[in-house]
Design a protein that fits this description.
This protein is mostly helical and 285 residues long. 71% of the residues lie in helices and 0% in strands. It is globular, with a radius of gyration of 20 Å. Keywords: Membrane, Transmembrane, Transmembrane helix.
């Protein structure tokens, strides 16, 4: 069952090597035993054969991981690096803010998970309807993972529309995570990163669209998954049309997102330790 799930993830990414790289990072961090790596690689290869076909059978078809319509990256500048650092911080705050809201929502509804699930679904639907009425954007701007909406995001030139989409997607992401819905955390985080990158390129002079999108993707992905190498590689692959020169910006975003997540995790652990200590019975005199 686990191998089938890994193969399915490979199909979603459109390239088995992306998933293989992510699994390797999991193994390096410790949660995955090294003995599982070879069976996982075989499962990824088998799943990709189902997509591309074998002999006369044409397979189920593949899809490109690259963002459609992304212009080429002309070159890295000091302004891009400074702006990229700022975008990485903002994107990380948004992603971790969604995660914090989700944790609070989950804790509040732990005793009544079913009503919480329905409330989260209703809230998400209202967000999607509200964004549609206010901006004319499709319901996909808020619903689902956002993977099929990325190309549309890149073409939006209205700052107010992007801000509404960003806020609604962040709240919907938090509602899904905290309300009990199950699914991959990566592409909703990618959608947040792309939205922030497009906003930065529109608002701040001298910042390019491909550079800021790459920073946004890498930082939000690393912050949500704690996988900085995977976050950087995924950002570069999604922005493959921009060229390889965006790689330093992807690394910058991934490092910022990962450091912030590690710091937040340590802070949460300290809070938990303090709570445990305060709840412990006092020692007899």
């Amino acid at each position: 069952m686990a191998l089938g799930g890994v193969a399915a993830i490979g199909a979603i990414f459109g390239n088995p090597l992306v998933t293989a790289f992510m699994i390797l990072e999991f193994a390096a961090l410790g949660p995955l035993p090294a003995a599982a790596l070879l069976p996982i690689l075989v499962a990824l290869g088998s799943g990709y054969i189902v997509q591309i076909g074998l002999g006369p059978w044409s397979g189920l078809g593949t899809h490109s991981l690259a963002l459609p319509g992304l212009p080429a990256f002309t070159g890295l500048t000091g302004v891009e690096l400074l702006g990229g650092a700022g975008v990485a911080v903002v994107a990380t705050v948004v992603a971790l803010g969604a995660r914090e809201l989700a944790e609070r929502l989950q804790a509040a509804g732990r005793r009544r998970p079913t009503p919480l699930l329905f409330a989260a679904a209703l809230f998400t639907a209202l967000l999607a309807i509200g964004v549609n009425l206010a901006t004319g954007q499709s319901y996909d701007a808020v619903l689902f993972s956002g993977q099929d909406y990325l190309g549309t995001l890149l073409a939006i030139t209205s700052v107010s529309t992007l801000l509404l989409v960003l806020i609604a997607k962040m709240l919907a992401y938090a509602a899904a995570l905290g309300g009990g819905f199950r699914g991959g955390p990566i592409f909703p985080a990618v959608t947040l990163g792309v939205t922030i990158g497009v906003l930065a390129a529109l608002v701040v002079p001298g910042l390019s669209l491909p550079g800021m999108v790459v920073v946004g993707i890498a930082s939000t992905t690393a912050a949500m998954t704690k996988l900085p190498f995977t976050g950087a590689m995924l950002a570069v692959l999604l922005a493959s049309a921009a060229g390889p020169t965006v790689t330093p910006l992807a690394i910058l975003g991934a490092v910022v997102g990962f450091i912030a997540r590690m710091g937040l995790d340590r802070l949460d652990q300290r809070r938990a330790d303090v709570t445990t200590t305060s709840d412990a019975p006092a020692l007899p005199a």
